[in-house]
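protien #1 (seq + structre)
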Amino acid sequence: MKKHFFTNSEEVGNNMPHFTNNGFEVVKCPDSIWEVITDLYKICLQAPVKEEPFAGLHNNAYLYDFEPYIGIVRHIHNSLLPLHEFWSNTILEPTAIWGIRSYTKGSQLMYHTDRPLTHHISCIVMVDKDLNGKEDWPLSIKGHDGKFYDIYTEPKDIILYESTACLHGRPKEFQGKYFRNFYMHYGVRDLEYVGIRNRK
């Protein structure tokens, strides 16, 4: 039976249910899945697609589209489901994954929270980066304790985070050549939001 969470469309962040100690954790991608991801990455590099700024959140980004490789992508999404369920201690459903976003010089990711219905538990898989001798580009995230943390990652790192409950972004302009990661999202199976609309 679904549990009901009553809210309104304006409430985000710490008003959302929490499933983990502080809302985020960095882990290593399992070797078997990392091999699949790196092979897929090599294929995707052949056809970058320019991505327009989305709702003011990011710019100067290209998207290496996963759509032509949906079978492989579903395998990755489903294979990493147990990792997310163990971390969040709740039953999840895979909901969204698009492609590898390649941020270039001047990119910013404004602070935001994600869609409650489909993005409650999420992850960022770090794939590749070329800082061109410049400073690294951390994810800034607000934990459940109300403090902001800067998270630095290397290829094969996965940031698990409650993307609906934790304000997050990369507000500093990226100064390197490229920074590439992709996002995976999971919905909470037994939680129904009452009085909230999913943002597009």
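ok now protien #2
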Amino acid sequence: MKTRSPAAVAACLEPEFNLLGIQTTTGTPTVALVVHGPIAARLGMNSGTNCLGPGNRANACIGRALRLALTNIGGAHPGVGDMATMGQPGKYTFCFADADDPWAPPLHVRRGFAPDADAVTVLGVSGTMEVLPVDGGSSPEAVLRPVLEAMQGARVAASTGRMRPGGEQFFLLPPEMARMIERGGWDLRAAQNFLFNESDPAARIAATPADIHPIVTGGAGLKMTYVPLWMGGTRSVTRTIELFGR
């Protein structure tokens, strides 16, 4: 199977993604890939247990291919173009697939693409943070309140006043926890509105409720993952993947 164009690379070149900043900062950001649509299953990608971890060749190789392009074509060689003080392990590879879940359709569908379209989203992320619900996830608020606290904490700890208007937020939600929110009577929009409206009005975590993006992925368990975007300024970009052969 071959792609007509390097969709992930092309997405990184969109001005709003701010690849130059991500590549050259002394901060920690890397490019994370989220693959959407039927192509994820055809490639054998992991959107279940340990989806961010080792053991899946497709996830690892796709993420690694993008990193090699960013380094060898984009010039982000450590200490030359890439000036990260610490960096992060995600710079080796960071790629996973999202799930088609009744509570929250895949991100590309929310952005107007057809459900059967193959697409990829690039995120300029500063790392990952494990987040657990309170009270065993007894209500939508118990699930989402710790996510809000993680978002607000990251804004204070990492932005040093740099968080710009138009920001986005992403967190990974395992299906088991999506069911908890659903049983509480909340849909995707209600969750987005809660996280936005409960945030500090003087320092909103996102530009609008719609800029808060839960992505359903992962396996069994009550562990969410918050993936803060780089505070230097970046927005996610979604592009379709065009295929021309097998």
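Residues 1-5 have pLDDT under 50 and may be disordered.
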